[in-house]
Amino acid sequence: MRTVVHLSDLHFGRVDRAIAAALPAYLARLAPDLVAISGDLTQRARRAQFREARAFLDSLPSPRLVVPGNHDVPLYNLAARLLTPLAGYRRYIADDLAPVYCDAEMLVLGVNTTRSLTIKGGHIRTGDVERLRTALARAAGTVVKIVVAHHPFEPTASAGEAIDALTQAGADVFLTGHLHVSYTGHTAHRYQRAGRSAIAVEAGTATSTRMREAANTFNLLRVSTARIEVDRVAWRGAGEFAVVDTQTFDRSADGWTSPDAKSYPFSSP
Known about the structure:
This protein has a single domain, classed as 4-Layer Sandwich (Purple Acid Phosphatase, chain A, domain 2). Helices cover 25% and strands 28% of the residues. It is built from 7 helices and 13 strands. The strands form 2 sheets. The chain has a 7-stranded mixed β-sheet, covered by helices on one side. The longest helix is centred in the N-terminal third of the chain and has 14 residues, at 17-30. The radius of gyration is 17 Å and the shape is globular. Residues 263-269 have low confidence and may be disordered.
């Protein structure tokens, strides 16, 4: 079994200092096999914010797999936004926008969904769908296959086609953020898709004061070939975190099934 910590929407520049100080030690006690961070490391893609985010990442357990979010693209510097939108991210966080982690039990693939011409939105490029599909299809059937992106797939025809292509190629789990609201369920429910069902896991904000939930949260996944458990872990204050919800999924002929499956109304970012 492998354990994966899923953080998202750190937003350095609008961060709760108490949480940012307590989280590294808590994660160290969990001793995860991987820390996956699904974007928005900064609030406004400023150098000081990237430097703070870099120092925070360096305090976390490794290995780590990180992808950018829309807040990691400059908002007010239009020239940088259009010409070098992820220059700060590449300099301070990671030059690789398609990171990969692989071991004997899981394959984790990152993808960049940010766009220069949109402020909040984002989507997966056709070329990235093909890259991911190929990597997923080539991986051994015994490994759990996870895709990490900042933006959840929107309820559009093209996004639906991407979900279908990736789930049919063998994707087991999609880890995303952006909405600052936690959710764990089936792709069949989350994206209204038929066919093989993967698991959609969305993280709330781990450390930001820009909250849409009652507490700052992150996810802890316990991953095996036959079963995946997802804990939602919330900040309780005074240096304490607690598991507030757990959902369990079992592998079946149709993908992943759970008695706790939920429908999910889309909310605006």
